[in-house]
Amino acid sequence: MASSVPPSPSSPPSPPPRIRVGSAPDSWGVWFPEDPRQVPWQRFLDEVAEAGYEWIELGPYGYLPSEPARLLDETGSRGLRVSAGTVFTGLHHGPGVWDATWDHVASVAALARAAGAEHLVVIPAFWRDDKTGEVLEDRTLTAAQWRDLTSLTGRLGREVRERYGLRIVFHPHADTHVDTPENVARFLDATDPDAVSLCLDTGHYAYCGGDSVALIETYGERLGYLHLKQVDTGVLAQVAAEGLPFGPAVARGVMCEPPTGVPALEPVLAAAGRLGVDLFAIVEQDMYPCEPDRPLPVARRTRRFLRGCGV
């Protein structure tokens, strides 16, 4: 006789991994909390939504409203959600900078958490001034400075997770000490994967000689976040020949609208998709400074292009 006991219901299948696409104030030429050459924050929010994005980053702290209720009202009314906040740190300077660093990090992390974000993008300090090119310190860290950078970044990751529930994603960046493939590998090998994930910026990594697909295939378990941008190789050759700092290089157009530059984003997104994890892929079209009417058409075209890449 067949059993009359109904079979146990199976657990619902897990949703497939997602790559969630967004943009950032950077794509509207915003680098600073206040600057007369930048579009007002209201215009950024209006236009990023109009371009077809649902996710944004906070950008420089103080550009968007820093009162959580107002920020949520302004983003929510436009159908926008926040993926991350961003901080700059100089932890290679050692324990003496911890308190000041934490004060800044805590303000941004609290706002990001209140806005519903799950990530905090951490960018290391520049070794030369981003505008003037003035050399601020040696571009190569000592062994002791590497130890301070990696150990304190790990501490930052643990404390941000414990106090704010956010995961830090470390962003290698041009004109910082974590830039080239060799330095990125050294940083990743020396940090705790449970405390520190990687924010791979495809443009910065290409700018510094890196292959994003190779990095994903080698350190895929560390990838926690993506920034999407491309480099104009012709302009980059000029930048390298002239020794330009990053700010003037951007003003010259070294970061270009996809798909006109490198790396090709389709293989990057495919490699990230093969990891089988949820990821944010935030467009950062460095354009500081730019005319106020330029960003929206670029953002629309970029969103269409990314849809063609399957995201």
From TrEMBL:
GO MF terms held by the record: isomerase activity
Domain Xylose isomerase-like TIM barrel per the UniProt entry, residue ranges: 45-307
Region annotated Disordered, chain positions: 1-22
Keywords for the protein's UniProt record, in alphabetical order: Isomerase
InterPro entries for the chain: IolE/XylAMocC-like, Xyl_isomerase-like_sf, Xyl_isomerase-like_TIM-brl
Amino acid composition bias (Pro residues), ranges on this chain: 1-18
Keyword Isomerase annotated: yes
Protein name: Sugar phosphate isomerase/epimerase
